[in-house]
Amino acid sequence: MRKLKAGTLAYTITIALVVFLLLIFFISFFFLNNILFEGINQNQKIELCLESNINLLLADPEFLEKNKFNYLSDNEIEFHHEVKDWGVYKILIATAGNSKIKQEQLVLFGIKNPIINKALYLCNFKNGISLSGKSKIVGDCYLPELGIRRGSIEGQPYTGQDLVYGTINTSEENMPAINSTLLNSMYLDFKNEAKQRSNTFNSIPDTLTNTFKVDPIRLFSKDPITLNNSLSGNIVIVSEKSIVIEEAAHIQDVIIYAPYIRVEPGFKGTLQLYARDSIRIGKGVKLNYPSIVSLQTQADFDSWVIIESEADVRGDVYMWHRGSAKKCKLTISKDAYVSGSVYCAGKVSHSGNVFGYLQCKSFELISSTSKYENHLLNAVIDASKLPEAYVSSFIYPATSKFRKIKCLD
Asked: What is the C-alpha separation between 143 and 120, in angstroms, rounded?
């Protein structure tokens, strides 16, 4: 019998060991790769379930009443959701997953555009409306029975070819219905925040951020507040006196309550403003979408909102009086812009630009020599320029469909 040399035996053992290790490596590689692929596949399925069910919820509000369902997923994936208010918008918190993997998405949403192609609603009370200068109305209108006519103020006759570039309908004496329950709750929220004073503070940190996955940070002061801070997320700031927002402030998605609010010239940010007495939006201010400028009051004295020249408000502007609407006045100054819905249960002095839907009791124009009722001079109301991505707040009665505005952290 022939014997193997020691070197040959060692070589053979080495080759066998290498082959064995390679087999172990490839088996482990395919095993781990299969686990990784399965994990990726599960993540994709959960992500699809999350997105699909969110779309289903927004398309059919009846599903919002249910907290758990699997309509667009398999039995291995569960979907849960809850809805909470954030000012006049709502937040959908959606979770999908199984025993090993979970995903969460927070969505700010509102009502799918209920004002499409609507330009102007002027209550059917006393006078019709007169246009002068470069005034322009594009979209469907609801006007008093006395209608609309050409005018001339301060030597500026109406220059347009048509009086309205859209259909004309007859309005009612009263303002269109809005969600007064929501407005009442917002008014009571302010009173409750002021009453509780549970988070009274001496100063606000220079930088403050809060996720929407937890309860809001609520800050209250009985004194006037001046903001030049960096504030972002799930934060509510309340003053019993007034709040001034300086140009240097960086504010994103924050809610502000005060009797009087002033946004100083040059500020840029996204926020919801809720006042009881008055709001002033300074020159050149840019409030990004979806911002809210809202005044709700029952005071016996005059209340007002002023949007100064070159200011750009991208969102909705609301003025609502729980008593006499005669005490409400909204001023949209020359070269100011509002892209969204404007609702004023009182007078509007308009010489700027509204890209969307303007609803009011009456117009007031004060020239250098006189005061005019229901006259517009060099004022633009153009529904065709309302951004396609616009989503209304819940100030309007809910329609059959909601729409996502953006995702939140």
From this structure: 8
